[in-house]
Structure formats: C-alpha cells, structure tokens
Amino acid sequence: MSDIENAILSLRGESVELPLVHGTEGYSGIDISGISKLGHLSYDNGFQNTASCQSSITFIDGEKGILRHRGYDIVDLVENCSFIEVAYLIVNGYLPTREELAHFSRHLNEHSLIHEDMQHFFTGFPADAHPMAILASMVTSLSSFYSVGNELGDFVETAAKLISKVRTIAAFSYKKSLGEPVVYPRHDLSYCANFLNMMFSSPVRHYVIDPDVVKVLNKLLILHIDHEQNCSTTAVRLIASARGNLYASISAGICALWGPLHGGANQAVIEMLSRIKADGGDVRKYVQMAKDKKDGFRLMGFGHAVYRNYDPRARVCRKMADDLLRKLNLNDPLLDIARELEEIALKDEYFVSRKLYPNIDFYTGILYRAMGIPTNMLTVMFALGRLPGWIAQWKEFYDNEKAKITRPRQIYTGQKHRPFVNIDKR
Ligand code: CMC
C-alpha cells in the first residue's frame, strides 16, 4: 500500500496518494485529508488509530512500556526532580536552571490564593458533592475572576497561576466537605508540603509534615503529569480548537478525567478492592467475573488503550506502595488484595492474551490512602498531577497557526428522508 513517501489508497479503480507525516520516533502517520476524493470518509471508532495532532511533549511506546516527557525517561524524572521542576519542563520544553525554578516558585507563591469571593461558591455545594464536580466548576469560575487573554504574554506566570490556584481549590474543597475552616497556603512551604498542610492541618490539629510523604507526593504527581492524547487531554485540545480560554479548556479536561475508565479509575480501584475485602477476600471470584462478558464487571486499574505491556508508572507505584507502607508502619489489607489480584491476573490466559497489565491507577489509591487522602479525592489528585500536561498541550495547540477547529465527521445511520406527519395523525 505504500512507497517511501506516500501511501496509495485504491477503491473500485480510483486511487488517491496520501502523504506520510513523520515524527522523530514511533509511528509515522498517513495524512488522510485527501481521502474524500474517493467519496469516502475514514472511520476509526474511538480514534484509536488516528493521530489528532503533532506534539513534542510526550512520547509513549505502548508495546515496549516506554514513557518520556520532552525526551526524558519518566523514571529519571521521578527519581531526580520535584513536581514543580517537571511541570516547568512540560510547559516550557526544557529543565529549568536554579534561577528559573526559583522564579517559577515565586510565581506559584504570588498566585496561591483564590479571590475571597470565590469562597462563597464552596458553601453552595451540598456537603456530599463530589470534589471533581467542585473542582471543574471552580476552575471554570476562575475565568470570570482572572482574565486569560492578557496573560498569554508571560505564559510561565499563567501556568504557575493555574497550577497554584488549582492546588488551593482542591484543598479548600476537601476542607469544605468536612465542614472545617479552610487553611490558607504558606509561602515558606514547597508546593506539595503546602498542599498537605492545607489538607490536614486545622485550628485544633497540628499537622506534622513528613518529608517522606512529601517526596512520595512529588513522585505521584510527576507520574501523572502528561500522557499524550488521552481522553482528557483531547477534551482540553477540543475546547482550545474553538479558541476556548485556558480555564474553560482545563475544566473540560477535569470532567473527562472524572470518568471511571479514565482518571476516575483510581477511585474505582479502591471501591473494587474494598468490595472484594467486604465479600470475604475471594480474589479469584472477581477475576472470574472480569472475564465474563455478560457480567459487565471489569478489573479496574487493569488494561490500557495504549500500553500492551506493564505501564511503567504502575511499576514505580507498586514499589512506592511497599516502601511507604513499611515506612509509615501501616498495614493496608487492600494492598494485599491488590498484589494477589495482580499475581492471579498476570498468570491468567484471558489477561495474558489481551496484554492487560496494571495501569497507573492500580496502586496510586493505596498510596494516597496511606497519606490520609480520602477515596473521593483520588481523582482530584490525578487532576493536580495532570494539570501541567493539560496546560502544555493547550499552549501547543494555541501556538500552532495551522491548527484547525476540531470537527470530526460521522457515518450517518439514522432514518432516510421521510414525509412529515402532522401531530394529529401520529
Ligand atoms: N478487565 C477485564 N477485561 C478487560 C479490561 C479489564 N480492565 N480491559 C480490557 N479488557 C478486555 C476487553 O473486554 C476486550 O476484550 P475482547 O477483546 O474479548 O472484547 C479486550 O480486553 C480489549 O479491551 P478494549 O476495551 O478494547 O481496551 P481499550 O483499549 O478500549 O480500553 C481501558 C482501555 C483502559 C478503557 C480498559 O482497559 C478498561 O476499561 N480498564 C479498566 C478501567 C481503567 O483502569 N482505566 C484507567 C486507564 S489508565 C489511566 C488513564 O486513563 O490514563
């Protein structure tokens, strides 16, 4: 079907030459924009074989289990950097110098508060509102308090502003759900330490910040930081394609992330493990259920649209879970169930033949639980980590003068033209 530079697509004696689009590594693409000359559209359910853009932010080789950001291996970043350093890398394309990092941190501090009037919004939500609903609404609301249009000039500051405020919103929404007064951010604390302090200290409780917990939180947020054109990032770019503002675009990403097949899986994993525990801990029964197509039950935290190998992020999380629980002297029965589930599934023909491995969400919930973060906040933690990625992807889209509004086509399957029937004759 292809020569060196072009692919030829033939149909019923007609053919069209389709140019190849090359990246630096990984798949090349076939530019199918000329395909309509054949009188047909391309059809790709879920866009799983379609590159929606060219991007220089993240590289994944799903067969080999490789994940790199701006060329750096995810494990090197997790081992050596703070979350803020990698956020800078993702947004700007290069690792910051000490001065650049200090400058970025100053911006994070300057913008850490949210407008006091926004505090009223929190009180309007019912006490059991899901924190993802609050987060999405509050991020959209930011666009009515802070102008986006004027800030694009200093994008480092724009990015810092959003990264800082979203952390504050996340912690405030948790405090509101407890009915406790909010804890304001402190300039003397690092990004992650500040977040933990805002979550867990209170006027009646002094929270001691454990540097090991801060380290693990940094690593977890880095592991979430970007993952090329996943569902939520695609939502962010989709809104950007209509020239939607940054806050509105990120809010769309938050909503997409919430779904249990995407970032909401971390909450679903903890619910699944708790259900197995409450049901007597019979792991094999649930593996069996996951294999039964009629059952509708899936192993949450297993499988991935891109990885056909062990998710490199899950490998890091599995080790971190062992280390953190040991360090904190915690015994979480859910970790034992998770380990057993993984062991059984990875030997089972169903999972082996479909190349289904644990994904990032399989062990993260256990880590967050060990830090004291409640189950309904788990996807918010994913959003905090993913935020720099969304910002970078939004900016990449905005800077591309050739980018078009996203407007897929469809294969129509409805009624053909039929005569109108008056309401009295139906
Ligand atoms: N449990 C049982 N069977 C599964 C699972 C699972 N978790 N995942 C996929 N399968 C089966 C699926 O039924 C299908 O079987 P068959 O070929 O017999 O029809 C086969 O494996 C291929 O699955 P698929 O639905 O084509 O896979 P996909 O690439 O469309 O979906 C997925 C990927 C992540 C939505 C899916 O694996 C899933 O639902 N996993 C559970 C939810 C989850 O953990 N999501 C988090 C993903 S990682 C975080 C992030 O979103 O970035």
Protein model, in words:
There is one protein chain. The strands form two sheets. A three-stranded antiparallel beta sheet has the order 1-2-3, with no helix packed on it. It has a three-stranded antiparallel beta sheet with strand order 4-5-6. With 426 residues, the protein is mostly helical. The N and C termini lie far apart (52 Å). The mean pLDDT is 94. The chain contains 17 helices and six strands. 50% of the residues lie in helices and 6% in strands. The radius of gyration is 23 Å and the shape is globular. It has helices at residues 74-80, 83-92, 98-110, 119-124, 131-145, 155-178, 191-200, 211-223, 231-241, 246-258, 265-278, 283-291, 312-327, 333-347, 349-353, 361-371, 378-399, and strands spanning 6-11, 14-21, 29-30, 58-61, 66-69, 72-73. A hairpin with a 2-residue loop joins strand 5 and strand 6. The protein has a single domain (82-410), classed as Orthogonal Bundle (Citrate Synthase, domain 1). The longest helix has 24 residues, at 155-178. The structure holds carboxymethyl coenzyme *A. Carboxymethyl coenzyme *A binds at residues 227, 230, 261-263, 265, 290, 298-305, 354, 356, 359-361.
CATH architecture verdict: Orthogonal Bundle
- How many structural domains does the protein architecture include? 1
Give the termini separation: 52 Å
Strand content: 5-15%
Query: Ligands bound here?
Result: carboxymethyl coenzyme *A
Low-confidence stretches: none
Q: Give the SSE string.
A: EEEEEEHHHHHHHHHHHHHHHHH
Largest sheet: 3 strands, antiparallel
Radius of gyration: 23 Å
What's the name of the CATH homologous superfamily? Citrate Synthase, domain 1
The strands making up the biggest β-sheet line up spatially as 1-2-3
Structural class: mainly alpha
Q: How many beta-strand elements?
A: 6
User: Given this structure, which CATH class is correct?
Assistant: Mainly Alpha
Number of contiguous helices? 17
Assembly of the depicted chains? single chain
Q: Share of helix among residues?
A: 40-55%
Shape: globular
